[in-house]
Write a structure and sequence with these properties.
The protein contains eleven helices and 40 strands. By secondary structure, the protein is mainly β. It starts with a strand and ends with a strand.
């Protein structure tokens, strides 16, 4: 949604706004076709300092000292976006099979894959750029050797190379060294600029050697294997390298004062090496105790070194504080033992029923993002501009200027240290530290257990019912370990659904200014131990292995083998997934990557964003058995038809209702949720108005009113008293949990139709049509129609913010997954 140009032009003639900033905005954010329908604007009219007058026209307001109330209203509206979106893929695959002898076979394969697409991550099409989405090469060579009838071996060598690039083009911004990433919250979080994740590139070269030996001895089938991997992975990514400037209002941008929501830039642009070495081995025994009982016993061990680039944390070792935090070289986990045990039992002698149970432990690896985003201050530093006081000509004077590059020194003290009166050397080094990698690494761990029964009946049908449980531990969470909320369980501002009396307001013990200043023994937003140690110059970000999850699922599957031209697989799963952390990087705004309170992760335990309570699917293939023989005309016109429908029903993805501001005062707005009204109408929302204790602030000079009203702000009132979710005002108590509101369910039918044409016995054609969502049923879901996994979404979260007209309306955000047709022609000879 964008401002009308005509109103901006009129306003420019009479006000002191930046012509450069206005010009950039007008160049890329074209006029909306209609106004008054932008729902993310302020709920109240700032021309009324008491906050009691509602913004009924859905305007934004630009500061104008000569206008009534000090502001000029400007209409804004939703701008429909239509832009090209294409991809080009080139894929080649080659295989070779060579029998050296009766006991030796050689197999090889080569896969070439180039995939180019439009990078449509930016909000505005003007910033769309072509980019190599996936450049991949894969080579494998396998050698199979049979030593005897009971002993065989497989040796495999492999090489995989992948490359990705996120460009940012040649866009320029007057006065700045690069085009920044601009966001305007009141314009539905409009993002202005190239891809926020660019520029970056990454290569990964993987060398792999594997050997597996199989030995059958009496009732035992023994398998042993070992695998070695070598990763060589140069890459470069500096988060917010162009500068991220998030403005609560367009007014601040047009007047060119510093942002009031986020002003942050990271310096340094080193090439990070994610080089690693991995060694895995396993031993497994399938022991056939009796003809109808088989026991499986296995053990696997995994060891993966830390990425080479993470060793650079040692550059910051002087900042270590014994008993609090260490910046030594991270150490890889060495206790990744994965036992396996399973049993299969077939009662009786018919062999139509089997009972299976199993238990196992497995491990995941830690990804390179952790290291490349956790560089020490000697290689990369993050600079923040405070929200107050106002800094005029902010972008005209360069905003946050880029760092000098190279290895940073803290003697003499950096400008930030000088401004904060921090001494040079180690104190300045500690003050500048913004990242920490856990020294004793723990790899994500999965514990699984299962019990299932399978039965074959009517010869062609197999029914299976099984229970699956999974426990995840040592899952990464993104935390700012030196930050804490200003609010507590007792110190907060209440939110009312019905207006209290003035006497009630005057009796409330806390006010906004007092909480902000720590006047109620609530401290400040820094954890005392870290603040006392000198870690108060930046957020100390850590990816902590303290997340966990639990999954319970009951699944049923009915399979019909091909008979009389029909085969199908029908399945239904009822499951529940609970966790305290789903995303740990900025991959989705639907479930925030950081918790609401870094010191209380338990409060984030809730339905997982991956939870899909119900999932039903049926996939069938019907190969018409009629007219398979006979004349050429019968076979090729009436016969050789095949149809394949796939139907899916799936429960919706859970999403988190968010206030969109730093309500609890811990310096982070990513995870702050909302006020939940248990008696409210389900799925509805409300903004709030401010309630004041008795005051005479309105009689003061304009420059003094803001501070006066802050010291008399004691509560908030929901503008819609029957709402279920209420946006939190500053320092309100938030009682809504994570992932409490559902998106939309999936109710989808795909259909494939195939026709075969036989020219002769040696040559055939196959023509097929695949219709995805064949009924063209609108399904506004954040993920795929054919996959339980979620898809990253980092766009506007206005539909998750109470008080917004788009609240709980995914139809305004996500694509409808309209019908898509694919045609294919295959020649068999």
């Amino acid at each position: 949604m964008h401002s009308y140009r005509c109103r901006l032009y009129d306003y420019f003639e009479h006000s002191r706004i930046s012509s450069a900033n206005l010009g950039v905005f007008q160049k890329y954010a074209s006029a909306a076709p209609a106004g008054g329908n932008c729902s993310a604007v302020s709920a109240t009219d700032p021309r009324d300092a008491t906050g009691k007058t509602l913004n009924t026209n859905n305007d934004i307001f630009i500061t104008n000292a000569s206008a009534s109330g000090g502001f000029t209203p400007v209409q804004v509206g939703v701008l429909p976006v239509s832009a090209p979106n294409y991809n080009n893929a080139k894929t080649f695959m080659g295989k070779i099979d060579y029998d050296i002898s009766s006991k030796d076979q050689l197999r090889g394969s080569y896969i070439f894959n180039n995939f180019y697409a439009i990078d449509n991550t930016p909000t505005l099409p003007a910033f769309f750029l072509p980019a190599p989405a996936n450049i991949n090469r894969l080579i494998t060579i396998n050698e199979y050797h049979t030593f005897s009838a009971s002993v065989s071996n497989e040796a495999r060598l492999g090489f995989n190379r992948s490359y990705s690039l996120t460009p940012t083009g040649s866009f320029t911004f007057p006065g700045l060294d690069s085009f920044p990433n601009l966001t305007f919250d009141e314009l539905n979080s409009l993002q202005l600029g190239p891809d926020p994740n660019g520029p970056q590139f990454g290569y990964q070269n993987l060398y792999q050697a594997t050997d597996n030996l199989t030995w059958t001895k009496s009732h035992h089938t023994l398998k042993f294997g070992v695998e070695g991997r070598k990763y060589i992975s140069p890459q470069s990514f500096t988060q917010r390298s162009r500068g991220d400037y998030d403005y609560g209002t367009l007014d601040r941008f047009l007047r060119d004062v510093n942002p009031d929501a986020l002003a942050e830039r990271s310096s340094g642009n080193p090439v990070y090496y994610g080089d690693q070495t991995a060694l895995y081995w396993f031993a497994n025994d399938d022991w056939r105790i009796r003809p109808n009982i088989t026991l499986n016993l296995g053990m696997r061990y995994e060891y993966t070194t830390i990425p080479f680039g993470e060793r650079s944390q040692a550059l910051n070792q002087a900042a270590s504080v014994p008993g609090l935090v260490s910046f030594a070289v991270p150490q890889a986990a060495k206790n990744n033992w994965g036992p396996r045990i399973g049993i299969a039992y077939s009662p009786g002698t018919s062999g139509t029923t089997s009972i299976r149970a199993g238990f196992g432990i497995s491990y995941d690896v830690l990804y390179d993002n952790i290291g490349i985003l956790s560089l020490p201050p000697q290689l990369s530093g993050t600079i923040d501009t405070p929200f107050t006081p106002d800094i005029p000509s902010y972008l005209a004077n360069g905003g946050i200027k880029p760092g000098a590059g190279g290895l940073r020194s803290f003697s003499p003290a950096t400008p930030d240290c000088v401004a904060a009166k921090v001494a040079a050397g180690v104190p300045c080094q500690i003050f500048s530290t913004g990242n920490h990698i856990v020294v004793n690494q723990l790899d994500p761990k999965s514990i699984q257990w299962t019990l299932g029964v399978q039965h074959v009946f009517q010869k062609d049908y197999t029914l299976e019912v099984r229970y699956v449980g999974t426990r995840g531990i040592h899952l990464n969470t993104q935390e700012r370990i030196n930050r804490q909320p200003l609010t507590t369980s007792t110190v907060f501002l209440p939110t009312y659904t019905t207006a209290p009396s003035q006497a009630t307001l005057d009796a409330l013990p806390y006010n906004k200014a007092g909480i902000a200043g720590g006047a109620y023994s609530n401290g400040d937003s820094l954890v005392p131990a870290f603040e006392n140690a000198g870690f108060f110059g930046a957020n100390l970000v850590q990816f902590t292995p303290n997340g966990d999850s639990i999954y319970h699922g009951m699944a049923e599957q009915l399979t019909r083998r091909m008979a009389h031209g029909l085969t199908f697989v029908q399945s239904y799963t009822y499951s529940h997934t609970i966790d305290n952390s789903t995303a740990d990087f900025f991959t989705s705004v639907l479930t925030p990557r950081r918790g609401q309170d870094f010191q209380n992760l338990a409060a984030d335990r809730a339905n997982s964003a991956l939870d899909r309570r119900h999932r039903f699917t049926i996939a069938a293939i019907y190969d018409s058995p009629f007219f398979k023989s006979g004349s050429w005309l019968k076979r090729n016109v009436l016969g050789n038809w095949e149809a394949g429908p796939i139907y899916t029903y799936q429960s919706p993805e859970w999403m988190t209702v968010q206030s969109g501001s730093d309500v609890n005062g811990n310096g982070d707005s990513a995870g702050d949720r909302a006020v939940f009204n248990p008696t409210g109408v389900p799925g509805t929302s409300s903004s709030v108005s401010t309630l004041f204790s008795t005051n005479t602030c309105a009689s003061l000079a304009t420059a003094l009113q803001a501070a006066c009203f802050s010291s008399h702000t004691v509560a908030y009132l929901a503008t819609t008293p029957t709402a279920q979710y209420i946006r939190g005002g500053a320092f309100a108590q938030l009682n809504a949990g994570r992932n409490t509101i559902p998106a939309r369910h999936i109710n989808n039918l795909d259909l494939t139709a195939l026709k075969r044409f036989s020219l002769n016995e040696q040559m055939k054609f196959e023509f097929s049509v695949q219709a995805l969502n064949v009924l063209n049923h609108p399904q506004f879901v954040p993920g795929s129609l054919n996959d339980v996994a979620s898809i990253g979404y980092t766009g506007s979260r206005s539909f998750l913010q109470p008080g917004n007209a788009q609240f709980n309306n995914p139809e305004a955000v996500f694509a409808s997954n309209a019908r898509a047709l694919q045609l294919a022609l295959k020649f068999v000879f």
